[in-house]
Specification:
342 residues, 4-stranded antiparallel beta sheet, 21 strands, elongated, mainly beta
């Protein structure tokens, strides 16, 4: 037993370790040979396939929702329409007036040349002074509301001078627009649907107005568009029967057209977003070529193709960008969501 423990068992262990070492060496070198024979690990073997989509038909509703707030309508100026003096005040400061309420009367005097007569017998001339020509004009409020006068009786004014203001006491809902939203609201209707946050049910506001934003207009940090460039404003009147207060948050939803059964592709497949654009059509051989298309409505996710494609055509899902320096993220006509985000 002593011989077995001292000689036989150690010999068996040595043989087993030798067999394991040979097996590991064979596996290591044989595997390396197969890898080197099959492919070069330093050479890329994966193939990149660009995502593709087919042109389909669908319904596109161009609905733009703008974050806004309720504001009190600014006072409207009442301006002098005649150069002269304030002859009579016809309304009092602080008075509630209608649009056609007379506010004051202006009086203007224009000198008239003297009349010269000649005596036919003596030839002597007589000069007669004429009274000046007097012109009177009544200025009306122009807007219903509360009148605030800023002139006194006998004060001299010029045409266009402010003689007071009328505070209408009405409310509007006002928000800011990004360039992309302004493009989508070209030829927008005159009304919108407004939802007051924490207020009554949604209502229709009329007199929709879209204009340019003031250069120093602050951006509302609570608005989703905060951080994006602001290029315009949108506002509409709150109906008198709707209870609202200045400062309330609101959403303005403007539906600017619906196209049913239209040819559509994702907006990511199109270079450009208004009127004209480019897509990359994939042929039967898998190659893609650029094609100009005419664009219609968009809902921000898909865009209508008015001309240039047919149903079933295959296009690249993401329009290629040749160079990042060619992309202006502030211009919705060239901004690429893959580069600019969103």
């Amino acid at each position: 037993m002593g011989v077995t423990r001292r000689i036989v068992f150690p010999a068996i262990r040595i043989v087993l370790w030798a067999v394991i070492a040979v097996a590991l060496a064979k596996i290591a070198f044989a595997g390396a040979d197969r890898v080197s024979a099959a492919e070069d690990p330093l050479q890329p073997s994966a193939q990149v396939t660009e995502p593709q989509v087919q042109v389909t038909t669908g319904t596109v509703t161009n609905a733009v929702t703008v974050s806004a707030s309720v504001v009190a309508d600014a006072p409207k100026p009442v301006r002098a329409t005649l150069a002269g003096t304030v002859h009579r005040l016809l309304a009092e400061d602080g008075q509630a007036v209608a649009a056609d309420t007379p506010v004051l009367e202006l009086r203007s005097e224009t000198p008239v040349d003297p009349t010269v007569t000649t005596d036919p017998e003596t030839g002597m001339q007589t000069v007669t002074e004429n009274k000046p020509k007097v012109t009177r004009q009544t200025v009306v409020a122009g807007t219903a509301g509360t009148l605030r006068l800023s002139v006194l009786k006998d004060q001299v004014v010029a045409v266009g001078d402010s003689i007071g203001t009328v505070t209408p006491g009405t409310l509007s809902v006002q928000g800011t627009l990004t360039p992309d939203q302004q493009y989508r609201l070209v030829d927008a209707p005159g009304e919108a649907t407004v939802t007051l946050k924490g207020g009554p049910a949604p209502f229709t506001c009329t007199g929709l107005r879209i204009g340019a934003a003031a250069q120093d207009e602050p951006t509302d940090p609570q608005a989703p568009e905060a951080g994006a460039s602001t290029s315009g404003t949108v506002s509409c009147a709150v109906p008198g029967e709707v209870t609202a207060f200045p400062g309330l948050g609101a959403d303005i939803e403007i539906v600017n057209g619906t196209a049913e059964g239209a040819l559509v592709v994702p907006v990511t497949a199109v270079q450009g977003s208004v009127q004209n654009g480019n897509v990359w059509v994939v042929g039967a051989d898998g190659a893609s070529e650029q094609r100009a298309v005419v664009l219609g409505l968009t809902d921000g996710k898909q865009v209508q193709i008015a001309e240039g494609l047919a149903e079933g055509d295959t296009v690249l899902e993401y329009a290629p960008v040749s160079s990042l320096t060619d992309v202006d993220c502030t211009d919705p006509a060239t901004a690429d969501p893959n580069v600019c985000g969103g």
